[in-house]
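hiii, so i know i said id send this last week but things got crazy w the move. better late than never?? heres the sequnce for the chain we talked about at the cafe, plus the structure i predicted for it. fair warning i was half asleep when i ran it
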Amino acid sequence: MLNIVKAEYQKARSSLSLRLIWAFPMIVFVLAFILTLGMTNAYAESVWNWWYTLLLPGMTAIICYLSMMQEKKTNYYNLTGLSISKQKLMAGKIIYIGCIVFVSNMIIFAGALLGGFLLTTCVPSGGAVIAVFVLTVAQLWEIPLLLFLSGRFGMIAELLICLFLTVGGTIIAPTGKWYFFVSAIPMRILCPLLHILPNGLPAEAGNPLLDMGVVIPGICLSVIWFVLAAILFLKWFDKREVQ
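okay and structure toks below
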């Protein structure tokens, strides 16, 4: 599997997707700086909030689309012309994109930490470190879904559905029904780690959204959603290629 992931990296080396790992975080850093200019305890909060509520899903959607289009250009030769199982090859693609998400989250962590140190912040650094890993796991479900939408319907439909899920997650995350809506899970479980509400405002002491008891259940739910989405996508892709 490691060789498959390395092969995905080699295929993407000269593509736009690798540049997006840096481009999207840079957009967040600049946007947060402009919007919080002159404010205290706001820069790191704004960086994280813009990232997980909008820019991270958008980046993932574009990377998934570019990855599928790269395969389509060769009529899926890179996936069907080898003796390795097509499902295993596509699983390697999912893992590779998951690694991209993790690296981008690390860049956001570093930029928010540095900016918060210079401009003041109330985001706990320990919670931010944990948030990198939690956010990566909590967003994995989106990768097989977006790969499917890209391959089946194209970029416009993929981005629209991604936007709907993101907006819906932001609305539902502060409610008691967050565990029913998969895109609300990362926004909810990051609240006690970053001390930021889904609307971007700092969470004051005593706010029920700071309850750490939601983190482990949220991670477990995210893993379940990811496994289910990955299995369904891999089966769909395998049958689609046979047909």
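btw The mean pLDDT is 89. thought thatd interest u
miss u guys!!
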